[in-house]
Amino acid sequence: MRKEFPMLLTVVAALTVILSQFFFHIAEWNLMDVLDKWLNVMWGIAIGLGIVNLSVVHGKKIMRRAPGFYNSVVLLAILYVYAILGLWTTTQGYYHAWIFDNVYAPLDSTVFGLVAFFITTAAYRAFKVRTWEATVMLLAGMILLLGSAPIGEAIWADWAHLRQWFLDIPNAAGMRGIVLGIYLGGFATALRVMLGLERAWMGAMGGR
Amino acid sequence: MMLAQDGPALGIFTAGSVAAFFALLVICGLVYMMIQRARAGLKIPEIRKIAGLEAIDEAIGRATEMGRPVHFTPGLGDPYNIQTIASYAMLGHVAKRCAQYDTRLLQTNVDPFVLAINNEVIRQAYLEAGRPDAFNPDDITFHSTEQFAYAASVLGLYERERPAANIMFGAFWAESMLFAEGGAYLGSIQIGATANTHQIAFFVAACDYTLIGEEMFAASAYLSKEPVLTGTVVGQDWARIGVFALIILGTILAQIGDTNWLATILKK
């Protein structure tokens, strides 16, 4: 029963979604809305799991004074203080909103900002002309850069058109080929899960 | 989702879903046929060599030799995202190898649901490898449900634990570049796999091996070498041939200026 019951639930949920998608009279029952509500309830419970995991992992670090344990103290303090503040004043409360706007949001943007620098270093490595594929990538990258930057238009007025052609024709063609494979691959995976051929998600290995 | 208020098509279908429904039936039929062939012991084509999947064992082996851990992330996908579902099989394989080689596996999560599932996947893999004693639930960690808080936390983990192999397998967004480049700075062997087309280029640029799109969905069949699972991949390929035939037909019709009837059928 440990495997059969989750499988049964999976098949019933999957059939509910599929039949609601295709059949008019079943779609009218709004079963998808019911499933969405259940999902929201489960999400609330799962967040608790996450908090327990964080508390256990970092609590153990603090208990055994592992290197950098003070970071764990800060993390747990922020987690619980901010959660209690949110429960007490609601998320619209002045202090809760102030911390979000002035601490969380700038930190979030800063980490996102790192992406720009990381893209540059990754591009430098990837664009080194070592193979013919890297050469093609370099040329395509150059054309797109020159087509997007003002200096490109100053050199040759048609860079922007060439860039657009690259995006609309070769890039779109390649991308659609990949997307087509992704949808078919995703569908085959979903089918394997529904048929019980792939049960790794239940902790069963070897695809069975 | 198709809107019920549009009125039924052909009396029973939601608007715009008739062609999709029959396409679904055809694809299911092809996959079923290949599964039956495999079960009957008939010959089915093999999956071509996929470098990124071949490199998994090499990456874990290298981490073992260096005495450093392996890091696995399924990205930001929900537990019901098909990419996350595909990642469970890969995680099981990686965990089993780590258990066999006695290498530490660090598994980070952004979603508490996925955390619980991955915990079970890894526990089972260690059990199957005959090393349940080596399973350490503290190495399977939840970090944050927020994208960049998770990314910052994982980068911190890279600095502290210095994983020698970094396996990114699932749905990724902007954090893909942070993970892949952070791993590259450490000199980790990196394997990236995602079906999010906007992130594939980043993995190609920063990783040693990249599974592009559908290759990640073939992973469970490829690694298990099970004929029945391989049969589903072959069935999917037959469906692809059918779609390509439709594309060619559409292209020819577009050239002769008559695409309406085909478009009308497909939009039904």
Please describe the topology of this protein.
The complex is a heterodimer of chains A (208) and B (268).
Chain A lengths: L3 H19 L1 H4 L3 H33 L5 H21 L4 H33 L5 H17 L1 H6 L3 H36 L14
Helix pairs in contact in A: 3-4, 6-8
Chain B lengths: L17 H22 L11 H16 L3 E6 L6 H20 L3 E5 L2 H17 L11 E3 L4 H15 L3 E7 L3 H12 L2 E6 L2 H10 L2 E4 L6 H6 L2 H29 L4 H8 L1
Helix pairs in contact in B: 1-9, 2-3, 3-4, 5-6, 6-7
Give start-end ranges of low-pLDDT stretches of chain B. Answer: none
Structural class of chain A: mainly alpha
- Mean of residue pLDDT of chain A? 89
**CATH fold call of one domain in chain B:** Rossmann fold
C-alpha termini separation of chain A: 15 Å
Number of strands of chain A: 0
Inertia-based shape of chain A: extended
How far apart the termini of chain B lie comes to 15 Å
Query: What is the topology, as strand order, of the major beta sheet of chain B?
Result: 3-2-1-4-5-6
- Summarize the main sheet of chain A: none
**Strand coverage percent of chain A:** under 5%
Class derived from helix and strand content of chain B = alpha/beta
Name the quaternary structure.
heterodimer
Examine the secondary-structure arrangement and name the CATH architecture of one domain in chain B: 3-Layer(aba) Sandwich
Rg of chain B, please? 21 Å
CATH class of one domain in chain B, please?
Alpha Beta
Low-confidence runs of chain A? none
| Rg over alpha carbons of chain A | 26 Å
- DSSP strand content of chain B: 5-15%
Number of domains of chain A: 2
